């Protein structure tokens, strides 16, 4: 029998994640009957290529969301809050890449390699986790399944790509200006990022954590279905164009041998073990860029704690940290025939 096909809309199609979604739908041969590219009015009329054919970008509207099966939304939290329910009412399932709905108790927060079964209970809306949470989850979940993790201490080294295509361009402009002894532009970032780094500039909470750090805390707990999991994070923006890195310290109840962790992660889905101790060669954002897998390495015993384990990872924030995870959720819904929402149930 012929494969069933679907009408898919990309909301925020001209942004960094939107263009990656377009590429992945083509690369992974997603069963598309019709594709809609939606963006703001200022982007309407532009043309993007899909399967060798030009597709015109449409302005987001209620009529543009009619007869759509799946919406891959990556246009920001405010846009998602305004339009997600409109799309759901029109019959679509929305896979949202923003922070708008991640912590809603009735919205599944999905990393397909970790908690795919939760997607079966959606009510027309599924949230894509934060990029740093996705990358870390892939490395932690296989270990957690073998021996429960009691505490996570993570420091992230986040590239400009996390703030979008304009941020990546700004870092290049900053570097050129500074090399020419000119003042660097700071329109996207509050401070120069080229040849510099600073704590993530998302708003601070009363506890002194920024919102980015609290996303890692709260989202990891929700994905792992362990609300008491002890997680603390320090998120830093670094002068890297694309792909985030993370230094992760794990605490278990009993010792976890590094060699055992290597064996587990070498077989884990979405993970690529990358270690050459003789050459001092471990995951780097330069090599993680454009890759689907999260690169994990430098796995070692924590010298300060008998039950501690250290690891280092790099992963493409735009790809697995955003667009790929969303497409994998869509593939899961299609494969399991979970597109039908539970609204009517």
TrEMBL record:
E.C. designation(s): 1.2.1.11
Record domain Semialdehyde dehydrogenase NAD-binding: where: 7-122
Pathway the protein contributes to: Amino-acid biosynthesis; L-lysine biosynthesis via DAP pathway; (S)-tetrahydrodipicolinate from L-aspartate: step 2/4; Amino-acid biosynthesis; L-methionine biosynthesis via de novo pathway; L-homoserine from L-aspartate: step 2/3; Amino-acid biosynthesis; L-threonine biosynthesis; L-threonine from L-aspartate: step 2/5
Annotated binding of phosphate, by residue: 102
BP-aspect Gene Ontology terms: 'de novo' L-methionine biosynthetic process; diaminopimelate biosynthetic process; isoleucine biosynthetic process; lysine biosynthetic process via diaminopimelate; threonine biosynthetic process
Binding site residues for substrate: 158, 237
MF-aspect GO terms: aspartate-semialdehyde dehydrogenase activity; NAD binding; NADP binding; protein dimerization activity
Function noted in UniProt: Catalyzes the NADPH-dependent formation of L-aspartate-semialdehyde (L-ASA) by the reductive dephosphorylation of L-aspartyl-4-phosphate.
Subunit structure of this chain's protein: Homodimer.
Family named by the database record: Belongs to the aspartate-semialdehyde dehydrogenase family.
Protein name as catalogued: Aspartate-semialdehyde dehydrogenase
Biological source species: Vasconcelosia minhoensis LEGE 07310
